[in-house]
What does this fold into?
Amino acid sequence: MEKSYMGIFIRTALIGVVCLVVNILIYKIPALSTADDSFVYPLPMVYLFFVLFSEVILYVLIRISKKNKEQMGYAFLLLTAVKMALSYVLVRPILEVAKDNPTEKVNFFAIFILFLAIEAYYTARLLNNK
It folds into this structure.
């Protein structure tokens, strides 16, 4: 892997860590301090899932961009669909429990959208490289 691409992985991991810390600090606010007690999955596990999956997607896209740049869009769509399917499997227990407390559901989808935006941003940058 080229050194220029290592920054993508480092920045993605740093964004994940910073967002995790901010998210944990939000749940330290007295009004929200008990909101995360009933979460199905702990916050670090959700962030770890999305950071790892995003880094795998970015790695595959970088490899594809070196060999066949025309197929990157299709690969992005396929990998995102796989990520969505796995996310759905992960979110099903949350949807069952979230009827009383939608906090975890909103939190999960916000994290999903955050990492989807990161992947889309880096994919667009890879496509625009000449």
